[in-house]
Amino acid sequence: MLVVRDLVAGYGAAPVLHAVDLTVPAGTIAAVVGANGAGKTTLLRTLSGMLRPSAGRILLDGEDLGGTPVEQLVRRGMAHVPEGRGVIGELTVDENLRLGGLWRRDRADAGRALDEVYQLFEPLARRRRHHGHQLSGGERQMLALGRALIGRPRLLLLDEPSLGLAPRVVARTMALLRQLRDDTGLTVLLVEQNVRSALGIADQGVVMSLGRVVTTRPAAELRDDADLRHAYLGF
Ligand code: ATP
What we know:
alpha/beta; binds adenosine-5'-triphosphate; 10 helices; six-stranded mixed β-sheet
């Protein structure tokens, strides 16, 4: 379970996140939605250790992660797929995937995880030796996700996975996240502009505005209740 309390973070003197509170139960998907500039990306960057919070607490399964270096966060089960995905164009699919397991001491399990990723993403298996820059947007998204999964994370932080993808590919990505949640108990914090798709697979919807969480609701309620949608999502 991920618990965030009173988190304050930003880029300079002025904070972007003002006392963010959030609870994501283990084995569930939370979709973080809200207008541009609400602080969604900043929240993910702070959780993954890229930004240092100036106040507040981050607990993963009861363990306080405050001040933990990024590498340690990864070892403790956190994986972040940033906006833009971070695929390295000059490396092959196989090399990109292996990067995701370099830090692992259990080499045998890293190898098993690699095989599992190839089973899960069959197009990647076919393009093992292709370079990152030769892939389509959907394939790059698979690669970024696959690389994160090789670390067998407990918590996956995903920033705009649907960006630039065709609707059919978005649907496939969302279905895969649901499958990972159901089959492996993965906990997912998903930031999405594509609110409908995200709320379609999420257990809870977390609405952010101006650096704060303004409401947290069951995702289906936010998706289906027109009054709530108008009030919080503006459509
Ligand atoms: P978007 O969907 O547009 O990315 P968001 O909800 O993810 O929106 P953030 O990207 O977290 O929002 O941005 C929140 C605020 O932080 C904005 O006012 C933005 O201008 C500011 N900000 C974002 N990145 C930086 C940065 N690297 N340096 C300074 N300010 C930043």
